[in-house]
Q: What sequence folds into this?
């Protein structure tokens, strides 16, 4: 495989990953929104849904790490994201069994802590194209996470907001995939 082929393979992998993440997030958000509308009390479906999202996020970041051909740069931000997502999956399982407001607060902490590495990784990957939406997504995640944390600490049980958060993230993934598709259609240099 030539350097030119390698330079195109990673953006193709990112495009595929972003499309998969878009599809997952949209479906997950629809199910969470329906489940949250049906109750304001903790239940097994909400717990499973809340655990599933950060687990999927960790798996997606692992996939991205595996596909990245750049062995010279630090991937610490991505590994932090994986570790945090796995820890949050456990914390959400515990918190969502106690109360929805506790789960909302944990979700907020996760959005903050995962948003920073997403922003860093997007800045580092900008040469591959389609990363501006990921930069925005990481930055917005920090601010929205603070809102979720504040709401959860105030006792709010509005976990459906997490569905809106996932939907916005899905839109950013779709935009990144479309931008990468345009980049990949350009003639090779």
A:
């Amino acid at each position: 495989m030539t350097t030119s082929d390698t330079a195109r393979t990673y953006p193709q992998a990112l495009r595929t990953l972003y499309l998969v993440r878009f599809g997952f997030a949209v479906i997950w958000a629809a199910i969470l929104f329906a489940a949250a509308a049906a109750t304001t009390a903790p239940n097994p479906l909400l717990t499973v849904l809340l655990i599933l999202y950060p687990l999927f996020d960790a798996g997606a970041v692992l996939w991205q790490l595996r596909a990245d051909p750049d062995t010279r740069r630090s991937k610490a931000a991505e590994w932090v994201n994986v570790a945090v997502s796995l820890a949050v999956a456990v914390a959400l399982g515990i918190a969502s069994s106690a109360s929805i407001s506790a789960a909302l607060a944990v979700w907020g902490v996760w959005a903050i802590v995962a948003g920073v590495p997403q922003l860093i990784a997007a800045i580092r990957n900008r040469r591959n194209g389609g990363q501006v939406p990921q930069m925005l997504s990481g930055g917005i995640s920090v601010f929205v996470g603070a809102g979720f944390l504040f709401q959860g600490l105030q006792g709010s049980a509005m976990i459906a907001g997490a569905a809106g958060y996932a939907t916005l993230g899905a839109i950013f993934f779709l935009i990144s995939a479309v931008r990468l598709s345009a980049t990949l259609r350009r003639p090779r240099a």
